[in-house]
Every structure is written in structure tokens, then in C-alpha cells.
């Protein structure tokens, strides 16, 4: 099982390049991170694939919101997995729930079958499951490689107790990847406590748009968003996080 993974979630080629510069282990590629992430376009994947040398895992999510999908949405997910597999993606990041807060095992099996030999991550749909330990055991039986989770809280700091328990139940069959509010500061605090060997962050920073002519009274989307500010991954944040992971690993092996 892989260990000491720093996965960086990106939604642009610029962010992918910054993540690679900072020392990321792999990328989770998505679109529209500002709404939690949706499936990226195939053109974005191909652009990122050509620009970086890191493994790329693809978020498969047809819309924002919960993870209880219609037949049409599920059909899109199947087709997207097949498409990204053909394009050369190394992994997919998926999650489908039943209305009662359990994993939709029938649909999850179909998605995993479609993924073939790609790595499979169960994303933070896990954090909306009614029973995290039951869901973890089901994920093991499904052959899922990784669970991305904040410990069923808004962020990892709030969910650190559950995260620690989940890591203790890995049994070498699955990897718990802590995500949600991870930055160099929180990583330094949580790393020795949780004991996870995989971490997920976006490392985002605000960049100003090069636009000089601006009509701020017109909004192209949510009025609460400043459309002249761009969120992109900061290579510096990734580099700091990577340094913390490296130092922790060295200290662990020395001791």
C-alpha cells in the first residue's frame, strides 16, 4: 500500500503545475472547486496530462450537492469513467449514496467495474454516511483503495478523533486519506495525532485577474463571488506541506 502521499486537488493546468512544483505525489483533477468540485472536461485533463508528470485521478461528480443520483446522472458517471480510462487517467474518485445514508453498493460496484485497473478513491460522500465504520468495511469489500474523509466533520481538525479511529481500522486493506481544511499548519498538528499516511489539500491562494476594465455591478454567477479573483494552488503551500511530511517520515524511521 502506498504511504506518505500528498494529493493535491486542482481544477486548472496552472494549479497542476504549481502542485508539481511544490512536490505533490499526485493530483485529483476536477472542475469548479469553488462549489466543491465536479467532473473535469476531457480537454482539461489532456492539457494537464501534457503539462505534468504526476499521476492524475479524476473526480467523477456530475453536479454539486449530495450524492444520491438520478438514472441520467449515474449514466453520465459511467460514461465519464470509461472516457477518462481511455484517455489514460490513473484513477477515479467516486461516491454514490442511498437516501438512507448508506453506500449504494449496486451502483458503486458498477462504477468500480467500469474503472477496471484504475485506482479507486471513495470521496467525501463517505462523510455523509450514517455509519462510518460500516461504510469503511463495505469499501474494503468493494476493493476500494482509498477513502478521502474529514472525519465526518466540516474539516479535519474537528474530525480528528474519528480520523484516528478510522486509520486504526485500515488493516492494510484500505488507506484513509485525510482531507478538508488541510494546510501546512493543520498538517503539522494532525500528522502525529491521526497517524494517516495520505493527505489531501488544495493549497489555494487568491490571485488577481489581469482584467483592468471591470464592471463590478454585473455578476456572471453567485453575487457573493468576486469574479476578478482567481483561486489557484500555491506551490509554496504544497512545498511547505511536503517538507512537513518528509521531516515526519525521517523522524519516524530514525526512532
TrEMBL record:
Record keyword Cytoplasm present: yes
Location, primary (coarse class): cytoplasm
Location of the protein in the cell: Cytoplasm
A Pfam short name: CutC
Keywords for the protein's UniProt record, in alphabetical order: Cytoplasm
InterPro entries: CutC-like, CutC-like_dom_sf
HAMAP family: CutC (MF_00795)
Family note: Belongs to the CutC family.
Name listed for the protein in its UniProt record: PF03932 family protein CutC
Organism of provenance: Blautia ammoniilytica
Amino acid at each position: 500500500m502506498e504511504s506518505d502521499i500528498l494529493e493535491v486537488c486542482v481544477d486548472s493546468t496552472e494549479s497542476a503545475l504549481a502542485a508539481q512544483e511544490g512536490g505533490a505525489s499526485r493530483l485529483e483533477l476536477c472542475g469548479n472547486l469553488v462549489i466543491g468540485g465536479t467532473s473535469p472536461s476531457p480537454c482539461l485533463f489532456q492539457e494537464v496530462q501534457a503539462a505534468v508528470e504526476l499521476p492524475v485521478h479524476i473526480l467523477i461528480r456530475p453536479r454539486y450537492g449530495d450524492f444520491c443520483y438520478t438514472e441520467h446522472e449515474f449514466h453520465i458517471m459511467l460514461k465519464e469513467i470509461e472516457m477518462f480510462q481511455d484517455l489514460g487517467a490513473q484513477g477515479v474518485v467516486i461516491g454514490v449514496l442511498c437516501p438512507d445514508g448508506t453506500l449504494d453498493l449496486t451502483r458503486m460496484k458498477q462504477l468500480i467495474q467500469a474503472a477496471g485497473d484504475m485506482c479507486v478513491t471513495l470521496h467525501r460522500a463517505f462523510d455523509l454516511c450514517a455509519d462510518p465504520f460500516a461504510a469503511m468495511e463495505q469499501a474494503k469489500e468493494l476493493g476500494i483503495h482509498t477513502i478521502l474523509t474529514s472525519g465526518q466533520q466540516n474539516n479535519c481538525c474537528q474530525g480528528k478523533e474519528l480520523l484516528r479511529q478510522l486509520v486504526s481500522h485500515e488493516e492494510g486493506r484500505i488507506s484513509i486519506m485525510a482531507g478538508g481544511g488541510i494546510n501546512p499548519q493543520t498538517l503539522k498538528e494532525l500528522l502525529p495525532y491521526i497517524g494517516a499516511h495520505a493527505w489531501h489539500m488544495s493549497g489555494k491562494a487568491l490571485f488577481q485577474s489581469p482584467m483592468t476594465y471591470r464592471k463590478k455591478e454585473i455578476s456572471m454567477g453567485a453575487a457573493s463571488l468576486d469574479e476578478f479573483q482567481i483561486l489557484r494552488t500555491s506551490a509554496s503551500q504544497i512545498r511547505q506541506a511536503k517538507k512537513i511530511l518528509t521531516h515526519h517520515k525521517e523522524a519516524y524511521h530514525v526512532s
